[in-house]
Q: What sequence folds into this?
């Protein structure tokens, strides 16, 4: 068996193997039964590493082949020389200078976090709960309040799952890569019982709204970016590639309704997973960050030792129902950040007979979905709404706002600590309306440069501009960026509308500059770049000699005339 060209090794490499999963000294053991704890794994014979200089590995006699993966160019897949196993080489590389981490590229069975057979309800109560299905009115994500500001126009929600039906009539889908089959068709396998899972997840996040048909997603003007990663064993390298692909495609949020097993067995934080999430955080949305959302799992157990959910930038989502009660299957523990509705929520399904089953009002392409697999894409849709309401929001700010605006549920039994966090619900039930209202803000306009023009005198180099106008009336600062010739950019932030560079530049310098206004959420649009030449201040003119002499003569004549006048008075 092979995955993307790498042989899956079983009996030939059945001996116990130890390696470092991350940059630290911790070790993980693959036992003789090919398990890490209770989780079965398969060895590919290759390893992954984060290295400063991939080229240096090419001269290593223990390395047969090096493949630089996508991203920032530091994560590589390595095939050892013949006769050397990947575990041994990973341990050797782990201690070398310039190597952040190195571990085997294992193939792992990803388990979906869905319960598709939960009882039906009659409509999408998670968006607006009026008591349908017997649920408690008002227990929803407050979607309509969010939609008053934004419905997710321009958003891209990545669904990393079993694939998404690319031509579903109620989804706007961009097809990504299929890491199971190794091709560019990320449609689901219609023969696989889990095939509908990705389409159901996509609909909760971003089913098309206001189109006269079907259902609406939380961010109903968003597009879906479909990646098929689930459908057998998945290598850690493929998982890394999937996150990088989604980030580079422009995803605002990556939704993951799956986990590594479903029994809460300890799972290490592999360096490749760490780097995959870090890449989304650091490179997504032009450096503002792509949020990674993940379902907590359905085994009603403690996920505190889950190395994927342990990453501080991963939003772990538990499940609650329409009565603000914990769904009994929902996992709990240190890495639960939020809760979101589940227990039967209406969403998109595969068209025809291949889906989960019919719904009483439409047996073609809609159905019910449950589990924390349903909760995660609901939160992903809420994230898309936040970025739609405030495109300058960072991923870290979005996570913080979701927590601060969440509704604390089951207060008497949830064990909230002093900071307002519960091991059952995290910060509480997601409230998309309150979160959007908290961040909704328009950026200040671009300031308009006034002076200097083409030149500035060396003694007085004053940059001045017309202050920006902020649509929300926010308090503003202005940040000026300036540089001399091709030199480094320097910045200054001030409350006024001018900056004196006298003494900082000299005659002969060519200075370029621009200015932007900043409110509490960050900078707005920058002005055009202006450039000018610094010239010597003109010398002051000396008084004209002839004028000075004439002036003196005029003064002498005045004295003479005065003396003559005095003389005449005396004679008289």
A:
């Amino acid at each position: 068996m092979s995955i993307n060209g790498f042989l899956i090794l079983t009996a030939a490499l059945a001996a116990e193997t130890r390696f470092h999963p991350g940059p630290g000294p911790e070790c993980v053991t693959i036992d003789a039964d090919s398990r890490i704890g209770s989780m079965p794994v398969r060895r590919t014979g290759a390893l992954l590493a984060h290295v400063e200089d991939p080229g240096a590995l090419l001269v290593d006699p223990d390395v047969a082949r090096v493949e630089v993966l996508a991203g920032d160019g530091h994560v590589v897949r390595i095939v050892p020389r013949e006769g050397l196993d990947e575990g041994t080489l990973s341990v050797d590389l782990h201690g070398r200078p310039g190597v952040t981490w190195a571990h085997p590229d294992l193939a792992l069975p990803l388990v979906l976090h869905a319960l598709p057979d939960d009882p039906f309800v009659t409509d999408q109560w998670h968006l607006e709960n009026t008591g349908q299905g017997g649920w408690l009115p008002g227990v929803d994500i407050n979607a309509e309040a969010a939609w008053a500001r934004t419905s997710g126009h321009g958003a891209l929600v990545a669904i990393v799952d079993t694939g998404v039906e690319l031509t579903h009539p109620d989804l706007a889908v961009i097809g990504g890569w299929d890491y199971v089959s190794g091709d560019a068709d990320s449609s689901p396998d219609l023969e696989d019982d889990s095939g509908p899972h990705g389409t159901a997840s996509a609909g909760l996040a971003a089913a098309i709204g206001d189109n006269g048909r079907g259902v609406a997603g939380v961010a109903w003007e968003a597009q879906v970016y479909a990646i098929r990663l689930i459908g057998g064993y998945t290598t850690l390298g493929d998982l890394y590639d999937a996150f990088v692909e989604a980030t580079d495609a422009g995803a605002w949020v990556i939704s993951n309704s799956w986990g590594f097993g479903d029994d809460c067995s300890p799972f290490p934080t592999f360096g490749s997973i760490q780097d995959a999430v870090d890449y989304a955080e650091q490179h997504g949305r032009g450096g503002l960050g792509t949020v990674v959302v993940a379902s907590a799992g359905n085994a009603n157990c403690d996920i505190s030792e889950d190395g994927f959910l342990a990453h501080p930038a991963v939003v772990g989502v538990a499940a609650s129902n329409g009565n603000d009660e914990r769904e009994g299957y929902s996992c709990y523990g240190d890495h639960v950040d939020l809760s979101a509705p589940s227990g039967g929520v209406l969403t998109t399904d595969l068209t025809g007979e291949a889906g989960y089953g019919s719904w009483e009002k439409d047996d073609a392409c809609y159905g019910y979905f449950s589990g924390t697999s349903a909760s995660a894409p609901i939160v992903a849709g809420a994230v898309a709404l936040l970025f739609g309401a405030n495109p300058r929001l960072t991923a870290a700010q979005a996570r913080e706002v979701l927590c601060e605006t969440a509704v604390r549920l089951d207060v008497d039994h949830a064990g909230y600590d002093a900071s307002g966090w519960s091991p059952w619900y995290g910060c509480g039930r997601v409230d998309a309306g309150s979160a959007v209202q908290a961040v909704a803000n328009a950026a200040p306009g671009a300031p308009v440069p006034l002076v200097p023009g083409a030149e500035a005198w060396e003694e007085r180099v004053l940059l001045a501009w017309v202050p920006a106008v902020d649509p929300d009336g926010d308090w503003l600062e202005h940040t000026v960026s300036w540089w001399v010739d091709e030199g480094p950019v320097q910045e200054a932030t001030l409350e006024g509308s001018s900056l004196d560079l006298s003494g900082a530049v000299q005659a002969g310098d060519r200075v370029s500059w621009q200015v932007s206004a900043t409110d509490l959420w960050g900078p707005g649009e920058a002005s055009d770049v202006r450039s000018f030449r610094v010239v010597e201040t003109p010398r002051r003119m000396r008084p004209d000699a002839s004028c000075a002499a004439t002036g003196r003569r005029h003064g002498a004549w005045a004295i003479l005339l005065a003396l003559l006048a005095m003389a005449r008075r005396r004679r008289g």
